[in-house]
Structure formats: structure tokens, C-alpha cells
Amino acid sequence: MNTNSIGAVSTQSFTFAEDEPFCLESGETLRPVALAYETYGALNADRSNAILICHALSGSAHAAGYLDGDPEKVGWWEETIGPGKAFDTDRFFVICSNVIGSCYGSTGPASIDPATEQPYGLHFPVVTVGDMVRAQVRLIDHLGIDKLLCVAGGSMGGMQVLEWAAHHPQRLHAAMPIATTAHHSPMLIAFSEVGRQAIYADPAWNHGAYYDQPRKPDAGLAVARMVGHITYLSEESMHLKFGRRLQGLEKYGYEFETEFEIESYLKYNGLKFTQRFDANSYLYVTKAMDYFDLTQPTGSLAAAFAASTEVRFLVISFTSDWLYPSYHSKQLVSALTAAGVDVTYLDVKSSWGHDAFLLEVETMTNLLGSFLDRLVREEQVPAPVGYAPRARFVPGVNTALPRTKLADNLA
Amino acid sequence: MSNQPLPSPAEVTRSPRLRPDLLAIADLVEPGARMLDLGCGDGALLEYLRDRKQVKGRGIELTEAGVLACVRRGLSVRQGNVQEGLADYPDQSFDAVILSQTLPYLDDPAMVLGEMLRVGRTAIVSFSNWGHWRCRLELLVTGRIPVAVDLPQQWYESPRRQLFSVTDFARFCREIGIVIDRQIYMNRGVRIRTGRFKNLLSTTAVFTLQKRAKA
């Protein structure tokens, strides 16, 4: 437990589209829509210090602090959000909301369909990253915030950031897409599909209608998560974390039990994931990522940001991330440059693969913190009442240790 | 607007002195200009220009340490190499493009200078002069390849570089259709009057360059 935590927090809920249905990109509609969200820190007098944090595939609105005061329930980005941290909650009003289609309090396939009074299951309409962001816009409207100082997020969170910048540029001053892409690659779609096929193949999935069944498609969901975890590591980080070490064994058993540490890690994380995530949500959220492609409809990424020239960007990638390789970020930076956008970019040297965006805390804190300092200066953002500056807090993270807990919160 | 002034990170990190050739470059920059600094290092020049001349600057820098230092100063900087980075900018998007003490390290100086004058109205370069009398004397007397006075780097050290003199550069510019406009010559950080002996007396030269007008 670290000292600079925001402390006890609670998740709130905002419901909209109770009368007028929320229209989705697919042409389907949803009514009503609930969004789970958390906020940390205080709004300043002119409501100009708000930052929206977007979570990754399996994340929730609980980004920082201890949920309902439970020290076991630490936020997924605790290292960067808190008093004196990169997203300094003394100075900024930080918001994080659960995406639609997910299963942490926002409307998704496990929610009750008002038409049938049964869980939606596969009757839930397919949502896109664009839909997720338009729902967030409603939340920001509800909170009375005209323009966000910044929208930040990694992985699928980074896609939401790009969606905000491309399609709602007048609603934010700055964008921080981290370890992400502007167009989901065929390789990413392939990994999504393997995960989905694992769920479909589980008889307990029952075409999505398992909410009233004794068994849930845990086996399928666990395999999907194991594939995911492989993609979040790098070959080097697997060597560092696990090597060829055996789990509690002196020598090979020549049998099909879990023998290697890497097997045990994947199995443990797969199983743990089934206790916290809904298999149908996994299908919907991965599908939303697969549809994400900002180069459409023109075929040009620069064209997507033609109206975003006032938005300042901080783009970050990681050298060993092969899931969202650096060249995706470099293409984004090239497109932004060609569109005349002010963009800062760093490819952070790291061995930790896609996980790096949660593990390279010191570099991230320096980058994000300095970039926010600049925004505060350029936009003349007043601090909230009672703000007293303090030295920036960089949590000491020993990345040599397996960080299963952090990685568990990832993507 | 602000009810209390927030400390600017620039105020904390500002270095008291700028390298002499960077000061000379800064003097050549118009107030309020749009600038691109290629290989901007820790961003000292861009910060100086922003604070003293209200310049709207951007930087390209290869090293992670350099990019982090620039971000700490609140600058807009892209990581990347000079050759690749330039290609993304639209034509004439800057008033000036700066290349300080980097020319000897380029694989293709003609391409880079051409690109600088595509994206910028003018280019400003500074470089060490191996034509200085001390270099000539060193080669003559000791038979060793001279080390530039303002660039103390041995021939075997990285990154690898190519030696050239003020005369070489002037000739090269003529060949590739570039006109040398304003010229500042320095000897160990001090501006000097060279008369006819530019190549013999200067240890560093700072030039503004322009495309030769088509006849």
C-alpha cells in the first residue's frame, strides 16, 4: 500500500436516455443507459481542471484509491492518480467511467433488458469505441464540464482518447493516447477472435444465455484471458519473470499437470479473471476494439484529425510492446504532424511489453506530470480552493518482481 | 484568470547560460517565429526562444533523455531521427528550421538541407570548422587527424561523423542550389571579425540558408 493514495472512494452511477433512446453506430438503440463512474479531487471555480481517464479492455471506473475503503480493492491506475502523482488529485478533478458493454456497473450484456426484464445476453446491441465515447460525452455534460483539460488512457483507453480528439475536438485541450493504435490491426483482430472462439466453444456459454444457469462459460473465458496475457508480455519479460523455471517441482514430471511457472501464471490469471469479468462483455468489448479504425471513411489518418489542430497530443509507446507496436504510434504521430497538430512523442525503452504502460511508472510520471504542468501554464488553469503544491510523488516500483496484481488489471 | 501563479517547470530547470553557437542562432530568429529545431537535445534553445522571443517551437530529438528533458521544460518534441521526422511536415510550415552542430553526423546532408528548406522559409545551421588554423597545423605537424576545437571528439568515438570546413560547406551549398545569407563566425565561443580569413580563423560558423531563387 502506498502513502500517497486518494484513500476511500466509491463508484457512482449516471443514467441517461431514459426517454429518448441512445443511438449506436450500428443503427441500433439502447434505452436507458447507465454509466458507472468515479471522481477524485475537486473541480476548480471555472470547471477547467477536469481530466478524463479511459480504461482498457477489462478495466473499470475504479482507477484510483480504495473502493469503499477496502485496502484490497486498489484502483487499476493507482500509481499515476493521487495526491502529488502524475494526475495530481490535489490540482485536478479526475474522472473515470466504465465503458458501455462492460460489466462494472455500466449498461452491458449482463444488464436487464427493460423489454424482457431478463439479462440482455446476445440481444445487447453491438457497441463501438465511438459509442463508448459518446456515452462519456453525456457524462461530461451531466457533470457540467464544457471542456476537459485532458483525456488520457492506454490500450483500448488510448483508442477512446483518439476518438475524443478526432470526433469531439472542441471538448478537450489535450489528448494522451498511450500504447495504442488508431486502427486495430488484423493481428489484433486475430487475437480477439481466438479469445471469442474459446468462449463460443464452451458449452456453458449457451449462446450468451447463461445468466440463470448454474455454470458460466468460465473455461472459455479463462482461455481467452490467457491468450490476452501472452500478448501483454514480451519474450524478454517472460524470460525475466518466469524463464523455464518449474512451479514447485524439482524435475519434469512427464505428465500434463501444470509444470512451468509461465503455465501456472496463465492458469492463475485466467481463473482469477472469471471471478471478476463477464464472458459476454468480453465478446462485446473486444468486438468494439476490432471495429476501431480512424482511417475510415477517407482512408487517411491525417484527415481524421483535420479538425483537431487545437488539441495538444502526448503520444507514448513502448519499445517491447508487440501488441501495439511502436510503429502504430509513429504512424499516428506522422499523421498528426501532417495535419499540423502539436504533438509530443516518446517511444519509451522498456522490456515489459504491452504491460509497460502500467509498469514504467517513473518515466510515465515524469512525462505525464510535465505535460500537465505545461497545459496548466498554457491554459492558465486555476487550482481548486485550498491547493498547496507539493513535490511530485513517484511511487517506487520494483519492476524486477512479477507484478501479477497490476497485470491483472490490464487491458 | 489564475488566482495563484503556478510555478513553471521552466523556471526550475532553466540553465543560466546557453551554448555560444545557440545564442548566435537565437539572435538570428525573429520574435514570434514558428521554429523547428532538429536534434534539439535537452531543449535549451527552444526554451530560450519561447521565453525571450515568444517563438512557437517544435523539436525533433533522437534520445529518450533529451525528449524527457524537453517535456520537463514544457516543450513540444517528437522522438525520432532528423531524416525521417522532417518528411511529415507540410511545405513551408515553419519560418525557420534549425540544425545546430549536427551536420557532420548526417548520412545525407543534401537531402536534409533540401527538406529543411522545403518545410521552412529559412534554415539556420551551426557547425564546427575543421579548416581552422589549429586543425591544419595539427595535421601538418603531428600527422594526426585533427579534433575540431569546438567539438572535442576523437575519430573512433560514436556517433560517427564526417569532417569538413567552412569552405567545403560553402562550395557544397553552391552545388545544391542553396544561398548562404547571414553569417556569424566564432572562435571558441566568441564572435570574431574574420575579413577574408573565415575558414582559417573560425572554430564554429553559424549561417542562415535559403533556396536559390529560380532564374
Can you walk through the features of this model?
The complex is a heterodimer of chains A (411) and B (215). Chain A has helices spanning 129-142, 156-167, 186-200, 218-232, 235-241, 261-274, 279-291, 301-304, 326-338, 356-359, 361-379, 404-408; strands at residues 8-9, 12-16, 22-23, 29-30, 33-40, 50-54, 66-67, 81-82, 87-88, 93-97, 112-113, 118-119, 150-154, 174-178, 312-318, 343-348. The radius of gyration of chain A is 21 Å and the shape is globular. An eight-stranded mixed β-sheet of chain A has the order 2-5-10-6-13-14-15-16, with helices on both faces. Chain A has a domain at 8-183 and 293-400: Rossmann fold. In chain A, helix 1 crosses helix 2, helix 3 (186-200) packs antiparallel against helix 4 and helix 4 packs across helix 6. By secondary structure, chain A is α/β, with parallel strands linked by helices. Chain B has 215 residues and is α/β, with parallel strands linked by helices. Chain B has a single domain (12-129, 165-211), classed as Rossmann fold, CATH 3.40.50. Helices cover 34% and strands 23% of the residues of chain B. Chain B has an eight-stranded mixed β-sheet with strand order 3-2-1-4-5-8-6-7, sandwiched between helices. The longest helix of chain B has 11 residues, at 109-119. The radius of gyration of chain B is 18 Å and the shape is globular. Mean pLDDT of chain B is 90; it is low at 1-15. Chain A binds chain B through residues 45, 312, 314, 330, 333-334, 337-338, 340, 342-349, 363, 366-367, 370-371, 373-374, 376-378, 380-383, 387, 389, and chain B through 1-4, 6-9, 58, 64, 67-68, 70-72, 74-80, 87-90, 93.
What is the fold's blueprint, element by element?
The complex is a heterodimer of chains A (about 400) and B (about 220).
Chain A (H helix, E strand, L loop, with lengths): L7 E2 L2 E5 L5 E2 L5 E2 L2 E8 L9 E5 L11 E2 L13 E2 L4 E2 L4 E5 L14 E2 L4 E2 L9 H14 L7 E5 L1 H12 L6 E5 L7 H15 L17 H15 L2 H7 L19 H14 L4 H13 L9 H4 L7 E7 L7 H13 L4 E6 L7 H4 L1 H19 L24 H5 L3
Parallel strand pairs in A: 1-7, 6-10, 6-13, 8-9, 13-14, 14-15, 15-16
Antiparallel strand pairs in A: 2-5, 3-4, 5-10, 11-12
Chain B lengths: L8 H5 L6 H9 L5 E5 L5 H10 L2 E6 L2 H9 L4 E3 L2 H5 L7 E7 L8 H11 E9 L4 H10 L23 H10 L2 E10 L2 E2 L6 H4 L2 E8 L4
